[in-house]
Write a structure and sequence with these properties.
Helices cover about 30% and strands about 25% of the residues. The chain has about 200 residues and is of the alpha/beta class. It has one domain: Maf protein, CATH 3.90.950.10. The termini are close together.
Length: about 200
Amino acid sequence: MRLVFASNNAHKLAEVRQIMPAGTEVLSLHDIGFEQDIDETGTTLEANSAIKAQTVNQWLIVNRQSSNGQSIDGVFADDTGLEIEALGGQPGVYTARWAGEPAANRAKALRELTGQTNRKAQFRTVITLIRGGQTQQVEGIVRGQIAEQEYGQGGFGYDPVFIPEGYDKTFGELPATIKNNISHRARALAQLVNIL
């Protein structure tokens, strides 16, 4: 099975490719020659995930694109948000661009929670799959809390400040093999695999 993942994010692609089952080839946007930017104008994770999948799917239809002469079986896209309970679910759909770049985003999360005893948060990933003219959405959630400061150099985004439930280390400290088994994206991908 050949699926296009509507992303060129190297970290996401590596995580997705490690998680998907044998026999599933995951192509990036670069792999299929899709070079345009996709405006994420939705106000929810569900909407942005759908916008990305629909945009790429429509491009494939218009361009009758098939990679190396082989057919493409479907397109999927994800959108992920960090939802911090004490901040009313912020940054949510604005997670990646809350304060600009990743270090500034982490600093803002820590700053906004100064003096807060409630540090509960969750990462939520929504995946939209378009295959055979049908659209389906699945989600994955990992609950945890925001650390008092950054720990670890691994992962990306908010990983150095997010401690998943059941662990005493941040995603930034945990080995990729553990993170990829328990992450929001891993859980959403497990749901995706179930419907493939």
